[in-house]
Amino acid sequence: MAHLTYRSGTYRQFDPGRGRRLIRRSLQFVAPYRARLAGVSALALTVAALGALQPLVLKFVFDTLTRHGELRTLALIVCALLAVEVARTLAEGWLATATWDLRLAVDYALRERLIGKLNTLPMAYHQGRPVGGTMTQVNQGVTGFLTAFSEIAFNLVPAVAYLILSATALARLEWRLALVVLVFTPLPALIGAWAAREQTQRERLLMQRWTTLYSRLNEVWAGIRTVKSFGMEEVELRRFLSGQREGNEIVRRGVRTDAVTGALRGFAATLARLAAIAVGGFLMIRGELTVGSLVAVLGYITGLFGPVQGITNVYQTLRRGTVSLEIIFGILDAPDAVGDRPDAITVARVRGDVRLEHVTFAYAPDEPPVLSDIDLDVRAGENVAIVGASGSGKSTMMMLLQRLYPVEHGRILIDGIDIRQLSQRSLHEQIAAVYQDVDLFNETVRANIAYGRLTASDEEIEAAARAAYAHDFIMALPEGYDTVIGEHGNRLSGGQRQRLGIARALLRDAPILVLDEATSALDATSEALVQQALHTLTRGRTTFIIAHRLSTVMSADRVVVLHQGRIAEMGTHADLMQRDGHYASLVRRQTHGLLLPHAA
After folding, report:
1. DSSP E strands: which ranges in 293-382?
2. Do domains 28-332 and 352-430+513-521+543-600 have the same CATH topology?
3. Do 550 and 586 meet the contact criterion of CB atoms below 8 Å apart?
4. Which one of 35, 134, 177, 392 has the largest count of C-beta atoms within 10 Å of its C-beta?
């Protein structure tokens, strides 16, 4: 039976060696908690020892009562048994608490690393993966690893200890019965090993199914307006339920397999018990075994097969855990092409001189370049408009300036410093951006404005809102600045969202500003207010304006015209109109569409 693993949309053969390497690498997640893990293991060993002691106490009880049969002796024995059970119960309670404390600590540390890594990975990584799928993978990966970790750290050590103690006690009680039991002992392990392959493959298939299913569900909810507009609610519901049924069928088949293997393992333990009763009864008839010894042997058989099955479960859990580790290390090992250099520098505040030198960029090695040999020198405080048809590379140029994608060919300098030499944090503190679709969060207006500067005072937040012509509509909201505006700011109009984005940029007070289609989706009234706010925002800052509507860039100090990834023209609006080149053609196309109805 081929053993396959799902990765990046395809299946590949499972590599046991790779699984072992992943497990060894995973030790780094628990290494900081070695002392606590040692304490939990010691406590688990104590619980195992107390459990192994119980059959011996029962042997003493029955053998003593057989010889003496006194009430006083029975009372003492019962008290001793009670003491052992109380001690074991207290130890088990302490163990459960310590186990969960350690598990939660590892969970926190692992999520910190994963989310931290995901937050620093470049845009190319996130754009190639659905948000819902990434969330599902993180949750399933962490949960799967913690299950495997708990199984090994908290069950393996006591299971092995109990197994050794039980086998030793059995051999000392009656070696012939020990041999009978040992004949059946390997059976649960063999059955578990046989089932492990199917369980591992099932885990992979389920991971693929849930990732795909919840990626789609996330997209549906994010685009719920479109879903409703086209009346696709039932279609999407059926699509989701179909995927859920497929996942449930995988689970159902797995449950049947687990039920069969579980029954077979239980039957092996029953056979061992029956064999021990038969042989033990025969020895008792011959006077070679006491009642107490037989009771103790039966007690150890019950306890013996539990650890054997526990060790088998550890093996199965490890096999399934490799699926989770593949996800975890798939994220942690993802290349970060825009990561900080070891010698990255920080700057307090730049003047705002920006220079692009022979910048060429393609989103993938096998794709044609989006930008080709771009040379551009922008002075501090200059207002530069970048125009061109869709796909000409306008937004890409600005994303490279912000190092949202790596600059691999050519270089970009700010105040003469290559941006690759700056720490990402330092670079991003120098740039503020306002996009066509402002990213707002399901928090208060105040929190959204202060998102780029969390230490801002209420007075500073209000001043930024006033400068962005947002204060009046904010005060008209039910709770003013403390109004929660919904996911993506869906309780606000487009113009209101844009003005909050401008207020956020004003509060950040960065020397370089990027306006990417900041007014393209607004009506005339909203655009007039936003343009007033933008006039305030751009004053004294190096500003890059990306716009399709050329009426918004006529006042720029310079217009850069991109065509098929290259700079086709550059100059003021008036100069470019006089040249009657590509820019003038773009202007005529737009004004023709506006003037044609009047001509009619």
Report:
1. 354-361, 371-378
2. no
3. yes
4. 177
Cα R_g (the chain), whole angstroms: 35
User: How far, in Å, CA of 546 to CA of 562, rounded?
Assistant: 11
| C-alpha–C-alpha distance, residues 567 and 355, integer Å | 14
> E-assigned strands of 222-322?
none
Q: What counts of helices (H) and strands (E) characterise the chain?
A: 20, 12
Residue 149 identity (one-letter amino acid): F
- Gap between the Cα atoms of 528 and 47, Å rounded: 74
Tokens for 469?
Answer: 């012509």
Which of the 8 DSSP states describes residue 482? G
Amino acid 415: pLDDT: 94
2-4-6 Cα angle (round to 5):
165
- Cα–chain center distance at 140: 9
**CATH number at 352-430+513-521+543-600:** 3.40.50.300
Q: What distance in Å separates the CA atoms of residue 175 and residue 132, rounded to the nearest whole number?
A: 59
Q: What is the pLDDT of residue 4?
A: 38
The runs of H, that is alpha helices, within 436-562 are 445-449, 458-467, 471-475, 494-508, 524-538
Q: Give phi and psi for 240, each to the nearest 5.
A: -65, -45
Alpha helix segments (H runs only) across 121-130: 123-127
Please tell me the predicted confidence (pLDDT) of residue 149.
80
Domain 28-332 has CATH 1.20.1560.10: yes
Three-class DSSP category at 3? coil
* Residue with tokens 């009047």, as numbered in its chain: 598
Q: Residue ranges per domain, the chain? A: 28-332, 352-430+513-521+543-600
SS3 466: helix
CB 122 within 8 A of CB 405: yes
Query: What is the SS3 assignment for 21?
Result: helix
Q: For the chain (length 600 residues), average pLDDT per consecutive 10?
A: 39 56 82 84 78 73 68 73 80 82 88 85 73 76 82 73 76 78 76 72 78 77 69 82 85 81 78 80 79 76 67 67 81 80 89 94 88 94 89 89 89 94 90 85 91 89 88 92 87 87 87 83 69 79 84 83 91 90 84 44
**Helix segments in 174-232, DSSP class H:** 175-184, 186-222, 224-229
pLDDT at 244: 85
Question: Distances from the Cα of 195 to the Cαs of 182, 298, 312, 317, in angstroms?
Answer: 22, 28, 10, 11
Say which residues have a Cβ less than 8 Å from residue 233's Cβ, sequence separation at least 6: 227
CA–CA distances in Å: residue 48 to residues 44, 115, 324: 6, 38, 29
